[in-house]
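Much of the work behind modern protein science is quiet bookkeeping, done one molecule at a time. Below is the pair of lines this work produces for a single protein:

***
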Amino acid sequence: MTRRGALLFAAMCAIWGLPYLLIKVAVRDLQPATLVFFRTAIGAVILVPIALVRGELRPVIARWKPLVLYTVVELGIPWVLLSTAEQRLPSSLSGLLVAAVPLVGAVLSRSVKDRDPLGTRGMVGLVVGLAGVAALVGFDVSGADTGSVAIVAFVVIGYAIGPLILAHGLGDLPSMGVVAASLLLCATAYAPFALTRLPAAVPSWRVTASVIVLGVVCTALAFVLFFHLIGEIGPVRATVITYVNPAVAVVLGVAFLHESFGVATAFGFALILVGSLLATGLGVRQRSVAVPVAEP
């Protein structure tokens, strides 16, 4: 890996490990729908002009049906559910649970048109990964809201399905155009709900800063850097950030929000990590697997 590739990789690991902390802070004063609106609106304001100048929006709009489906499954539903869950769950735990996305994605990708069955290695990975989720939920979530944990499960499913829709319905279109159009569509859809649920008082500077960073850094800048990362090191190696983001989320949650980190948390995350690596076949040359990358 080149120095530029290493810097891009490190930046993406940090940037997409940061949203869990920022969401946790933002939902103190903002409703989930309002947060999603401002985040996507900020991202759209930055990326849509770039996509327009490049002429990348028109071909995407022509493919509006899969675009709408992708937006709903990858952004619209997961982002509002994750924000809702973090009203009660620690940000670090949310990040760890979302680490199961590659595991679920591996199962779903092999279920599409019955291609590339899991095999022994994949089945072992699935069992190990599920054991990790069970460890987190069964041992380290005793004080957490069970309903919120279930909500994150739907977030994981959405994040796993989204890339499949992208690959099959939008994969031949310009990436910047797809992301810009998706953010604009999501912001437009949430505007009526968000603008009628604005807080009575001006949010604190921490909440305001969290929303701005979410929109500018974790959304607009993140996608631009991710495209460059794929161009630098390839799509398969770029997906490794999926395994690092949760660890970053834990470190930030413990450091800034004083969230707990116990033995069960470490054990559960380790099992999810190993299970995901086995199930996705990452590192196995004869199997090229598209590992979903969740943009939290």
